[in-house]
Amino acid sequence: TNVLEERSFITDRKAIKTPEELSGMRACHLRDGAALIHYFAWLEQKLLSGEKLDEVDAADRLEQFRAAQEHFVGLSFATISSSGSNGAIIHYKPEKETCKVIDPTQIYLCDSGGQYFDGTTDVTRTFHFGTPTDYEKRCFTRVLQGHIAIDEAIFPKGTTGYLLDPFARQALWKDGLNFLHGTGHGVGSFLNVHEGPHGIGIRPHFNDTALAAGMTVTDEPGYYEDGKFGIRIENVILVKDVDTPNNFGGRGYLGFEHITIVPIGLNLINVELLSPSEIKWINEYHQECLAKLMPLIADDPLAVDWLKKETVPI
């Protein structure tokens, strides 16, 4: 018997979202962002007032903030709420019996997402609720530079995520740093939070599928030091057509639109490492966070103050 194994054409069609799916993804990411602002404002206030919260307590509270949002159905995966050295465990899931009490003097990494009737979210933010070390700030800034490089990338049609992956690593490589996971995966529309066939990464299969307008993909470089800390900055981005001054080869060019709208963590940024264009990107991103999220959190003074504080221009 001859057996032919091929990828289903349904997978390829599903990867390219309809205009309705794309607008739903944008909308649910805004509500999701509002839930995260409520959460991080609440968490910072509790920790700085001396309250003891463990990683599970925090994750449960985040789920409550998400559940209060319109069209919420459930989590898209188990929340990675990790303090200090637990953040270096890439697929960490806190359990009540073994998890840590969150230490405000250490880096806190939170990778989480929600399922909404109009879309699926997946977002990672890394914060320090005290005073980070110069080394922690340098590592965080290198990760952020990689995140921005992917976000701003413009590339000819036919380009795969395999070819874009070094953009996310070049700043880390300058310091002799790296990370051992992919840079991005497709995201379903009220479906699987990990969706193929495309992605951004160094595994050979990422070179099989070109990125195409309408695809969703994550942008999530990181850096991890075993026994110390983990850093990851993750947004969901959409592949879109881009007008360029020229059109070499007549192929057309693509770029990205970020739809995750959550501040990045100002006190972990070493501004001296950044180029003027990177500073401009950060300031514009934070102004977008302020403008789009403020109306959604206006009834929570704590969240309003936190959002203002975390979007001050650098």
TrEMBL record:
Classification via InterPro entries: Creatinase/aminopeptidase-like (IPR036005), Pept_M24 (IPR000994), Pept_M24B (IPR033740), Peptidase_M24_C (IPR032416), Peptidase_M24B_aminopep-P_CS (IPR001131), X-Pro_aminopeptidase_P (IPR050422)
Molecular-function GO term, any one: metalloaminopeptidase activity
Pfam families on file: Peptidase_M24 (PF00557), Peptidase_M24_C (PF16188)
Peptidase M24 domain segment(s): 24-240
Stretches assigned to coiled coil: none
Names of the cofactor(s): Mn(2+)
Peptidase M24 C-terminal domain segment(s): 252-314
Keywords attached to this entry: Hydrolase, Manganese, Metal-binding
GO CC annotation: cytoplasm
Signal sequence, start to end: none
Family membership noted in the UniProt record: Belongs to the peptidase M24B family.
Protein name: Xaa-Pro aminopeptidase
Organism of derivation: Thamnidium elegans
Taxon lineage: Eukaryota, Fungi, Fungi incertae sedis, Mucoromycota, Mucoromycotina
